[in-house]
Design a protein that fits this description.
The structure holds two protein chains of two kinds.
Chain A: E1 2-8, E2 16-22, H1 26-37, E3 45-50, H2 76-88
Antiparallel strand pairs in A: 1-2, 1-3
Chain B: H1 6-27, H2 36-61, H3 66-74, H4 85-88, H5 94-113, H6 121-148, H7 152-169, H8 179-184, H9 196-207, H10 228-235, H11 237-241
The chains are: A alpha+beta, B mainly alpha.
């Protein structure tokens, strides 16, 4: 079975995907992840998950959101309105 | 730190040589293990064993000087090594190597436990460090073997390997003359051979009833296995390019 491996450092860092491995069961997956991905202390916490347990989108679910320029802004308009409001106050 | 009495130092040297050669054997699976995960696991576990060997050589020398540790680890004549035949044996079959991994790490964990309360501070610290790693080495071997034992063909091959390895496995427990003295002054809690029955029980638990066929002619740590010379040469391949080189 294929497992995906994630590591994080203690503190505010988030878990990051570091790779995958093939293992016969969960115990071997955890032990293999330890030897394959954390042998030089690359992380402080380890997540290992069977690839088949990951929910995967079908592409259509998020594709429309790639083309919505009206949702992007630099914040300048809001900042300008705040400046004007301060000056009026 | 405290320098060891020469007779007692032989006890630590025997352990160091076992760790060194076992580590070397593990690392030789790099690039040729049956699958990538085990390729990396063997290399990683082998490096841990080499680390244990370095701590033990440092204890023998009462020095952390790398050049001195290298000299002791690599440049002795064969008759000055105190390793057991089991770790000098060249095993090119993956099934044999896996069973040796299990047998060695099960024994090694029992061996380190004898040094947890050592009167020598270096050994006490080394035991704490090594035991934190060993439980994972043993779990790795056990998890892999337990999986394979569910398959009839794999179980048959592993059982054959265990029977074959039983010829030399117990040489791990062979003592050196200073062991009685080492126990008397608290360097270790008991002779390593006192753990033999516990180790046999753990081995039987995994492989069922084995017909133990120990080769008692190879029990002494003063004699080298016929595979030692080639192993020693492989270990020193890079050093021998230029022993005076500075890396």
């Amino acid at each position: 079975m294929i497992y995906e491996v994630f590591l994080k450092r203690d503190g505010r860092d988030e878990f990051r995907h570091v790779g995958a491995l093939d293992a016969a069961d969960d115990e071997l997956a955890m032990l293999s992840a330890r030897e394959c991905y954390v042998r030089r202390g690359e992380g402080d916490r380890l997540w290992v998950i069977q690839r088949t347990h990951i929910l995967v989108d079908d592409g259509d679910l998020i594709a429309p959101n790639a083309d919505k320029p009206h949702r992007h802004h630099s914040g300048e308009a809001v900042a300008q309105r705040r400046r004007e409001a301060r000056e009026r106050a | 730190m405290t320098a060891l009495d020469p007779a007692i130092a032989e006890v630590v040297l025997a352990f160091a040589d076992d760790e060194h050669l076992m580590g070397q054997n593990h690392t030789e699976w790099i690039g040729v293990a049956p699958f990538l995960e085990e390729d990396l696991a063997y290399a990683s576990i082998g490096q841990d064993e080499l680390g244990h060997a370095a701590m033990l050589y440092a204890t023998v020398l009462d020095s952390d000087e790398d050049a001195e540790i290298d000299r002791l680890a690599f440049f002795r004549q064969p008759d000055a090594y105190r390793s057991c035949s089991f770790v000098e044996w060249e095993l090119r079959n993956w099934s044999d190597a896996l069973v040796r991994h299990f047998m060695y790490d099960t024994a090694e964990e029992l061996r380190w436990k004898l040094f947890v309360d050592s009167s020598n501070p270096r050994l006490q610290a080394a035991a704490e460090r090594a035991l934190s790693e060993e439980r994972f080495h043993r779990r790795h071997a056990e998890a892999l073997i337990d999986n394979l034992m569910r398959d009839q063909e794999a179980a048959s091959r592993l059982h054959s390997s265990a029977t074959k390895l039983s010829a030399l496995a117990e040489t791990m427990f062979s003592s050196v003359p200073g062991e009685t003295q080492a126990v008397a002054v608290g360097i270790c809690a008991a002779p390593f051979a006192s753990q033999l029955e516990q180790w046999r029980d753990a081995t039987s638990l995994r492989f069922g009833d084995l017909v133990w066929q120990p080769d008692t002619s190879r029990a002494s740590r003063n004699q080298r296995h016929e595979d030692f010379a080639a192993l020693h040469q492989r270990i020193n391949t890079v050093f021998d390019l230029d022993r005076a080189a500075v890396w």
